[in-house]
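Side project, low priority. Logging it here so it doesn't get lost.
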Amino acid sequence: MEAEVALHAKLSPFPLPELVWREYWDGQTINDRRIHLDLDLANAAIELNKQVREKNLARSSELTGLNNPNSPLQLKDWVNRRGITMATMGKQEIQDTLTATTDFIVEEVLALRLELSKSSVRKYEAMTTSASPVDSRARGLMQFHGAARTGRWAGRLIQVQNLLCTYLPDLDAARALVKQRNQTALEMLYDSVPYVLSQRIRTAFTPKDGCEFIVAEYSAIEARVIAWLAGEDWRLDLFGRGEDIYCQSASQMFGVPMEKHGVNAHLRQKGKIAELACGYGGSIGALENMRALRMGLNAEELPGLVSAWREANLSIVKFWWTIDQAAQQTLTSGRPATTHGITFTREAGILFCALPSGRRLAYPGATITTSKFGRDVITYQGQNTAKRWDWIETYGPKLVENIVQATARDLLAYAIQTVEAKGWPVVMHVHDELIIEVPKSHCDGCAGRVGFV
């Protein structure tokens, strides 16, 4: 308690605006309201996974003769003894080896390894420990301001921020088989039972009796926000027309007309990769991290792809560096600097960045230093990727990433307030999506109006 009192006194010169407190209380209301879980499905998935895992371990042990074929070290040594060199038992290296090998035993063993390494049931296990035994509803799933850099909510307990997308057809049939614990039928109908279980995770979140979920999502929210902030007009126009950003990005990059399933359709993939990798200053390394080379591109194409994207998005590129300049100007002069509706100020050694909503991002101890590349960068104190307090470097494109994600978060917070004010209870949300639980009799009317929030 003494530490909390001291912390409150230390931060008293920087009071939170009323809008942030309102967002906090809305978040607590949603956490306390909770979302209903199908615990029968969760328990069935856990049981099935245990049975399949035991079967796969036994088969792998039979093929390899290993006491513990689930040990990466033991399995790597076994594979190497069969004349196939593998440095690790990582997923990508296993997939590469599966593509190249002609050893059918190694192929089966590595396929089993991939199955055994799936974490399909972890979220189901979290559901069974998080849900109330009284009403099967989970509470406290979202931590307010869990992402310190942007103020976004962070997933807790079940971690709903990274739920897998559902691609498996026949959702209801697969779900029924899982709830029946019908391992035989699942193995006959599907290639991988763990994959089926992972594809059913979203269906474990269920509305209460007499209600349905309405799911409302901001489409391509970060691409829209950065276009709006930077003033990239051709992007704003295409969003207004409801067109495909990946198609139009490729068209703009390569100077040719393009249709998703028509003329120059092969360029859409390049447009998509460039969009995902280059928006926040990403270059060749970012493209490689997006697995561009595994999506049909070759290494020689990557520099040209980066250049083409930047030439097609000159306003965004300019935005990166005007933000960088404004932040450094404030640190150098101590005076406020504003650009593109973003204002930087310096108070008590903290660099503040005021967003269009009025909310501020904070960079404690910010100063200008020289990077290993010999250029001026901003360095501030914060948690590094290892969750340790450290000095962190940032620069224009990274600041823009923070600004865009924080602004997208503010739009979601506004949507939550608006929806709640209309009496539509939000039971869960993720970065760009709201899940509202309403009586079935109200669904049609609500669904039509939520789209205008």
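Brief comment: The chain has a mean pLDDT of 91.
Revisit when time allows.
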